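Notes from hallway chat w/ T.B., transcribed later so I don't forget. T.B. wanted the structure written out for a chain they're using in a teaching module, and asked if we could keep both sequence and structure tokens in one place. Agreed to drop them here.
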Amino acid sequence: MKMKTPHLRRFRLPTALLGLTALLTACPSNGGNGGDPPVPGAGGRLNPSRLSGQLPHWAFGNAEAALYVYSSEQLLELPEGKITAGGAVDIPLGLPDETFGLLEGCTFSGERSAPDAQIQFADILALKASGDLLGSLTETRVSDQVPLTRLYARQDATFKGTAICSDTTLGLDLSLKAGWNAVAMRPGGFSSAAPGTPVTLSFTPLAQEVVFGFKDTSPLVLRAGQPVTREVTVYQDGGVSGQIDLSTDVPGVVVTPGTLTLPSLGAQDLGKRGRGPLLRALGHLGTQAVTTNLTFSLDGNATTSNRSLNLLARQGSQTIGQATLSADIRVPSVQVGVNGPYGTATLSGYQGATLKVPLSLTPQDGLTGSVTLTLDGLPEGLSAAPLKVDLTANATTNLELPVQVAPGAALGEVHAQIGGSKVIPTSLTLQIKPARALLDVQGTPSSLTPAAQGVWVMAAYKTPTTSPFTPQVTFRRYVGSQVAAEVTLADVFGELLRVPGGDAYALSAGYSGPATTIYRLKDDGSVTRLPLSGSGGGMNMLYGKVDAQGRLWYTGVTSEEVGVIRSGLYRWDPATGKSSLIDTQNAYSSSASSLDFVASGNGRYLFYKGGYNSKPLLIDTETQAITPLSVTGGGLINSAAVSDSSQVWYETYGRLTRVNPDGTSTTFPAVDGSTVSILGLDRQQPDLLWLKGSGGIIRFGTADASSRVILTDMVQASALLPGGGLTFLTQESVGGAARSFLSTLR
């Protein structure tokens, strides 16, 4: 009779037998799995179909035997196989349940009497009538001390040669007889052992282990004050005995009794065979099996969960067994919901501010009274005091848990857990972002312009209700969160142009007539009117850049023909108030945007990014030299930066490219897997390139291509500060009203 015995599979888990390579791997020489060394017995003569002899120092009393068949991982009962209390062994081998091809999946060269042979390998195991597995029995050839393995063949066959199985070459020297054979298995191959060969019999104990066999393996349904009792059979593999301590790995779940005393297996008697020891091991309990009831209950540390529970057996400090059951644990508790944006448990916190975590608390299983919430796992710089909350049965309580974020708290993502007595643990993710200052502005500004100190922001836009109806724009200069200056101008665009050195230009919009003025704003709020004539570019001036002499470079129309508009490069000079056409040789786009030009920090170099019909250009404003550049890999440049020494960086398809001094270019892998755009080179750290990615702002080291992502809200605009660092603008909507914030990174 064959049967699958789950706990006996712990003895050996061989690889599926596909060819001789797997056979050799699956058949270790000693037949054990980590127990004590083999104990040799008395000498004898090999009988392939029978195992017999005398085991010295046998301490397990009467025992029985079974075949463990490799290919099917099945056990085969040997009803006549016996080991006496004195260690006398007499085990006739039965027939295996299945066979397979010896040369299956292999290429053979040499001499053979048949194309192949149907065979099976097996081990002989010793076990008690109660199903306790003791170890394996092995015969060893006296002449060379090589252990022998039993091999069953369906017919006579000889193989003398080489088998190539996958990438392994094995030598075969087999003379098989129909029935049981014995073979020596070595890394180099297989050879037959002749009947009558002098052998010694040995026993290899299994590592001592406790195996639990629960009669009922359904989930444990545990409730406060409602213990659950299960019947369990404790198998003493390897002959383990004595006191064992029982516990679980789930806090708050207690097992009773906490200790068991296992008898010595050697003192047990076989008793009646019934339907066989292996069948009893499968659930029909034998009279000698250690069977008991274990009770699982909850104490005050239990929390509601649905999880796996491990029953652990320890002897001294060593874990010698465990069993896993599912456990549905429910105690009076509170379910916590984190009401983050879009239904997530991820919230944003800002350096130097209090983050209020919106929570909903719902009592479970009859909980009433108060609970205390804690926020665990917070790093240095973040703190949250325990919060006591009074709850009403069958009602949800909404509240905010304050988290203090220190000004110097580390930026990045924090994974914390909301817990407390009777609180079901709930995970929470906090994204700590740079400090931000709320701006007192109307609407939602879309641009920042660096000043000598701080940045200029369009704070208000107002159209008078009486004639002349000329719009008025108010600009405020912020240093940190403080307003340092304010200027209101009529009939100007809402964007300012940076002037190297710290001033800014406001351009006439021409709403009430031709644009004739450019206003120069200083940090103190004073304004100088500069004349504007012959611009040739109109609104395109707003999308230009200013050089170190305060001259404004921009594109403008040079000629218009039927269906063709030609554009060139213009330069407005504040000393004369007039614009001059600088270049018509290179192609410039007839359309313009604020991204067309970027300027170096010192204002000497400009980079024109080009378009569909125009090439990128590097412009030296001192010499007026204009150098066309090629775009590596094709495509259009989306954003760029140019250094004070004329080195150009640009971005296409979200990837960075550096133009080298010799005209070659180097393209870098995607930064942190993010699609990026260039914000500019730091004014004080020339090796630092500021980028905007999908998750925030990125510091990119141009010397070593290192990068660091700084989590931020969506960046609406940014400005590089003369003293180093980056100021950026973010916005949020609260109750339908837009709010704007400034943050600065160094």
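Follow-up for T.B.: The CA atoms of residues 302 and 655 lie 52 Å apart. Might be a good example for the class.
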